[in-house]
Please model this.
Amino acid sequence: MSSIFTKIINGEIPSYKVAENDNFFAFLDINPNAKGHTLVVPKKEVNKLFDLEESLYNDLMSFSRKIALAMEKAIPCERIGVSVIGLEVPHVHVHLIPLQKMEDIQFIKKVKLLPEEFEELAKAISKHL
Ligand code: AMP
Model:
């Protein structure tokens, strides 16, 4: 069965898309640690980050870097934090999280956003790509 992220990539489940190319898809996390929390996912469905073939792993990091640089321009923050977990969704994804303080990288405190806020954030980030 397809992962929830494959369904998002295929448009079967809605998402707040930030960017896409042939191999990767970036969209806002629906339960964000902070405003602008973005997930970068390879379209190829692989469970664990370090099981990706090396070239795809390198390309994922390079694509994530581009998104992070756009996020830094769009969202006031100290820096963009990176985390890879995958305990909830077994399809590789890089969490890019705008950080103001250490707690923002911990998956404890969440931010509630309205649909229009998600839409604005996704647009603001993609505008800088
Ligand atoms: P983890 O697998 O532990 O790295 O966490 C999976 C992440 O995916 C969590 O931060 C969720 O909030 C996020 N997530 C799960 N379903 C969706 C969805 N439909 N749209 C956007 N983000 C999602």
Residues 4-126 form a domain with the HIT family, subunit A fold (CATH 3.30.428.10). The two ends are 33 Å apart (CA to CA). The chain has a mean pLDDT of 98.
